[in-house]
Amino acid sequence: MFTTPTPFPLTLAPSPGVTGAPVPCPPPPPDSSTPTPETLAYSLTLPAALATPALARTCARALLQAHGLEDLTAPAVQAIGELTATACRFTTHSTEIYLSLRYRDDALRITVYDDHPTHTNPRLADHCQARRRSQLRLLGCLVRTCAGNWGYAPAPPPTTGTRMWATLPHTPTYTAA
Prior knowledge:
Layout: E1 10-12, E2 23-25, E3 41-47, H1 52-66, H2 70-90, E4 96-104, E5 107-114, H3 122-135, H4 137-145, E6 149-154, E7 162-169
């Protein structure tokens, strides 16, 4: 294969029936700028296994440090460990959980999904919620100390299961207790 230099940029025309702007060919080079807090946006699909909380903590620690959020690392890693451990305990139908890390509006947003559905029987639902609250007790203390918020709720459609979250404001005054 040979290529001939051309002063004209190449573009792929949209397929028939497809609307949108043409795609440059070749695509622009990847962003090579240094990661910043504002560019922290990661999603991980992880196995629902005993080793997952440790793996999630290790990944999060590296990501937070790469994005210059070292002062959020200790509370975030603890929160991620609690959320992923709970998700792994409650996952029953699939073999995966989902972790999302985002930095928006001067806060780290941690979201974890598991596949545990909302029970239709009120007694089972109450028992299940009490069990989940018990599993997340340490998370509640941690987030309260950091002046953040946390919670859990049924996952929004089209997904199923449960969504858990913690939001940690970026105030560089956290200290290990």
